[in-house]
Design goal:
heterodimer; A: about 120 residues; alpha/beta; Udp-n-acetylmuramoylalanyl-d-glutamate--2,6- Diaminopimelate Ligase, Chain: A, domain 1; five-stranded mixed β-sheet; B: about 140 residues; Heat Shock Protein 90; 5 strands; about 30% strand; globular
Chain lengths: ~120, ~140
């Protein structure tokens, strides 16, 4: 699935990274706990979250993620947008809530992590 | 081999917003050095968790990253309160972080366990009331 398809499925606004929408992603995760993302996430390229602070972007950068989706119409700060641009991370904002956003992507074939 | 490259950082304990800046920089530096992506990821996650810990618990400190031919060594040194019970702190889910820290997405009790998980070796030297020094090694 491309990031453009994620944007369309979630009816999301592109906050930054317009030029990276054709990037292909194969799995995603949803969490408001960055500690858990750092602990359990392996190769997920997309993070869906309702948390909005700079550590969300840094966590995504540490995990080599390509895209962060803010759910429930959360809007990142200018500082966060700069951080995301610096790490080539696409930021999307959707009105959908976490459960619905994750479910929509999952139903269209974007999986979570494979269980070990 | 005694040749090494050292990166030194002062970790500002005043601002949660800026926590992680050193780890982002280390990640960039290691990329420029052409280290394998998996090594870079392990180093940067371990260091990031450590940096967050320093800001949350110890009011900052200093971080040194030494890159050798066969390993990367991260040393995090703080003058914080020390860790009273290291075995307990190493348990997944145990945390002394405040609700405010939790509301920011951290303090799940995964920091130290994560640091151990992503490194080949981790040594914690801590004295209550004096500070904590954590040395982590990732082999190439």
């Amino acid at each position: 699935m491309t990031i453009r398809e994620i944007r369309d499925l979630l009816d999301a606004d592109v906050i930054c990274g317009e030029d990276l929408l054709e990037e292909d992603v194969h799995s995603a995760c949803g969490s408001d706990m960055m500690s858990d993302v750092l602990a359990y996430v392996k190769d997920q390229a997309v993070l869906l979250t309702g948390l909005v602070n700079s550590q969300v972007i840094r966590t995504a950068a540490m995990m080599d993620m390509l895209c962060v989706v803010f759910v429930r119409s959360k809007v990142p700060s200018p500082e966060m947008i700069e951080l995301a641009k610096d790490s080539s991370i696409v930021l999307l904002a959707s009105k959908k809530r976490m459960y619905e956003a994750c479910g929509t992507l999952f139903a269209h074939g974007l999986n979570g992590a494979k269980h070990e | 081999m005694s040749d090494k490259l050292t990166f030194h950082f002062d970790v500002d304990g005043e601002s949660f917003v800026s926590a992680g800046q050193a780890s982002v920089q280390v990640k960039k530096n290691l990329r420029e050095l052409g280290l394998p992506p998996e090594v870079i990821r392990r180093v940067s996650i371990a260091m990031y968790e450590g940096e967050i810990n320093m800001v949350i618990h110890a009011n900052g400190g200093v971080a040194d990253v030494d890159v050798y031919e066969d390993k990367v060594v991260i040393v995090l040194d703080d003058k914080g309160p020390g860790i009273k019970d290291v075995a307990l702190a190493m348990q997944e889910g145990y945390s002394t972080a405040s609700d405010q820290v939790r509301s920011l997405g951290f303090g799940a009790g995964m920091g130290l366990p994560n640091m151990k998980r992503y490194t080949d070796d981790m040594v914690i030297e801590t004295v209550v009331g004096v500070g904590t020094k954590i040395t982590m090694t990732i082999r190439l």
